[in-house]
Write a structure and sequence with these properties.
The protein is mostly helical. The chain contains 16 helices and 4 strands. A two-stranded antiparallel sheet has the order 1-2. The chain has a two-stranded antiparallel sheet with strand order 3-4. The structure holds zinc ion.
Length: about 325
């Protein structure tokens, strides 16, 4: 027997196995998908099962035992379901989201959504992942809390930031800093440091790259990341960056501009593409969350839609 006939004989032996494995996986995925769908239907019935105490009438000790034995639901998932269903009982838009995407997606917004805003939140929940929705809901709450200072022009949002920094400095460095501060204020000293750092960065700022390929050159990448030390640039977000985001969409410009490339965590990058960041063309300290999506140009909308689809294929950075 030659080598090639041996190989093809082996292939014949392997192929039935491969087919079997593929088939097993396909069946498992199909059943899994359906079991999730049916579980969601059970979840939607739970409030009425509880209301009419059907579990008791059918001889169960509690609704938890009823849901565990009949639908394999854990104690925690029944508790979460009852809580969330109570929150959405007067919001049919969000009930539909639960039916489509499950109870988990509702959790970050259950306490924020009102009857008036239910439609808005339902749309967001349908188009966002749970992580992005949770990050957006957090920003939304923050923007509501700081709303009174928005009109006055005076906002003390960051007044406690320095005390929140919780600096852990070695004694010898603290002593040096104290000397550098001298008779001046910490504000003045820190501002001086920031100016020096920014000046140094500017001196080494790389050129904008035109007619570029998707790959971002290391020089530009390093410059952009030095501005936040590899952290998401969205105000108050301290997550590590995951994506270098083109605030001027790359698909339209084919440019890597060191000034308009911004490091973002995934949730904030998704928000940018959902059209939810105000002042996106300014530097990130001026960014605010939008409480409604208003895309100004159709062109951008198309690109952002394309980016959303792109996530299923290539690496995220190339899509942004
Ligand atoms: Zn972030």
């Amino acid at each position: 027997m030659t080598n090639s006939t041996q190989n093809s004989a082996q292939n014949l032996v392997q192929n039935p196995n491969q087919i079997l494995e593929k088939n097993l996986h396909a069946r498992f995925t199909f059943y899994g998908k359906n079991s999730l769908k049916w579980k969601r239907k059970c979840t939607l019935l739970l409030p009425e099962i509880a209301k009419y105490r059907i579990w008791e009438k059918k001889g169960f000790f509690s609704i938890y035992e009823y849901a565990a034995k009949l639908a394999g639901m854990s104690h925690a998932s029944v508790e979460a379901a009852l809580w969330a269903m109570k929150k959405v009982e007067d919001k049919p838009e969000l009930r539909r989201v639960i039916e489509e995407k499950g109870i988990e997606i509702i959790r970050p917004i259950a306490n924020i959504a009102t009857q008036e805003t239910a439609k808005f939140w339902a749309e967001k929940a349908m188009e966002m992942s749970r992580n992005t929705l949770a990050a957006y809901a957090k920003e939304y709450k923050k923007s509501e809390r700081s709303a009174p200072c928005a009109g006055s022009g005076i906002c003390h949002k960051n007044s406690d930031l320095f005390s929140d920094l919780n600096l852990q400095i070695k004694p010898e460095i603290a002593e040096k800093l104290q000397k550098l501060k001298g008779q001046g204020s910490w504000d003045d000293l820190m501002e001086k440091f920031i100016n020096l750092y920014e000046q140094k960065l500017e001196e080494n700022k790389p050129q904008l790259q035109e007619n570029a390929k998707e790959y971002i050159p290391a020089k530009i990448k390093n410059y952009v990341l030095a501005k936040t030390n590899n952290t998401c640039a969205f105000p108050d977000c301290m997550k590590p960056y995951e994506i270098l985001h083109h605030t001027e969409r790359f698909a339209l410009t084919h440019e890597h501009d060191p000034d308009s490339l911004i490091p973002l965590c995934k949730a904030h990058e998704r928000m940018a593409h959902a059209g939810l960041i105000e002042n996106e063309n300014q530097s990130p300290e001026n960014w605010r969350i939008k409480t409604t999506a208003d895309k100004t140009t159709e062109k951008w909308q198309k690109v952002d839609k394309w980016v959303t689809q792109c996530y299923t294929g290539k690496s995220a950075e190339n899509c942004a």
